[in-house]
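Incident log, support desk, overnight shift.

02:14 A customer reports that sequence design results differ from what the structure should imply. Their input is reproduced verbatim below. On-call engineer (initials T.W.) acknowledged and began investigating.
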């Protein structure tokens, strides 16, 4: 009995220590968020402001090469600013999430489509939305999740055919299966695990702009909601993203269980980062009850693929 009590006390002390470590980690994330939102962005705003002013006021005194250098400097600063803002959103998924409450996913998709209306009109895409239920979730993060997935489908479209994006859902046994499918360029199935890693890129910014954080953000949101996200696709045949979430969950997951398959930790293959400081001529774009059904993402050695 004494041995069992000692073991129980040791386990309790370990849990207390782990909780303290988690609190310290969250505090560090909050400090990072402040630095990223102010101290890092303010110098970039000044760089952009002064390069734009020089371009406007000194245009007739600048050589063609000098004007090009200023344009590139301003574009690099804009990309860095977009990257910082995306990293800030990524870091705040766990630290700044809202309490769970009933969320009408149909209304959320409606708001997302309003926000993306200009892009949808410009691409001529057709968005089909099936019946979507109400679940307990963080409404803001559900909006971010759906906006990232739909904008991802619009970005990786095929130019030779009408873009069609289908958003649908089904509920079974207290679990929601949400799918966003498109008829875009697709991807090799061996990339399916790697696309959820931060900074994953296959195409250059000149072809498909972005920071490579969007799908990683989707994965983090799904995990905070005790769910998963997986991808399936084929070259030239589009892609389908499947998110599995509990419908009646009342609180967020504060730490990802060690047993959960992590798509971001399956390979040592080199990652091609989205380097915001690189000189480029690419256009700047402003940039059980707790175990879900279905297979986990596959692991294995794979190549990088572009994320939003």
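02:41 Re-run completed on a clean worker. Output:
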């Amino acid at each position: 009995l004494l041995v069992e009590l000692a073991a129980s006390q040791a386990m309790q002390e370990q849990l207390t220590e782990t909780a303290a470590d988690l609190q310290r980690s969250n505090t560090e994330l909050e400090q990072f968020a402040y630095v990223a939102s102010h101290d890092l962005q303010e110098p970039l705003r000044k760089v952009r402001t002064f390069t734009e002013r020089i371009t406007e006021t000194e245009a007739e005194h600048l050589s063609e090469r000098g004007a090009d250098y200023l344009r590139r400097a301003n574009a690099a600063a804009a990309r860095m600013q977009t990257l910082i803002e995306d990293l800030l959103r990524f870091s705040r998924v766990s630290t700044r999430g809202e309490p769970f409450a009933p969320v009408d996913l149909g209304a959320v998709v409606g708001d997302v489509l309003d926000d993306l209306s200009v892009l949808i009109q410009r691409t001529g895409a057709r968005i089909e939305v099936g019946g979507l239920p109400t679940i307990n979730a963080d409404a803001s993060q559900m909006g971010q999740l759906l906006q990232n997935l739909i904008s991802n489908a619009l970005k990786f479209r095929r130019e030779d055919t009408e873009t069609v994006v289908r958003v649908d859902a089904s509920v079974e046994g207290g679990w929601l299966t949400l799918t966003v499918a498109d008829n875009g360029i697709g991807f090799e199935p061996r990339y399916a695990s790697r696309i959820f890693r931060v900074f994953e890129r296959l195409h250059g910014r000149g072809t498909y702009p972005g920071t490579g954080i969007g799908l990683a953000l989707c994965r983090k949101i799904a995990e905070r909601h005790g769910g998963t996200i997986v991808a399936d696709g084929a070259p030239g045949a589009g892609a389908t993203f499947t998110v599995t979430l509990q419908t009646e969950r009342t609180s967020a997951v504060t730490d990802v269980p060690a047993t959960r398959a992590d798509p971001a930790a399956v390979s040592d293959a080199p990652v091609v980062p989205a380097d915001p400081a690189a000189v480029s001529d690419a256009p700047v774009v402003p940039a059980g009850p707790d175990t879900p059904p279905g297979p986990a993402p596959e692991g294995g050695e794979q190549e990088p693929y572009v994320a939003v």
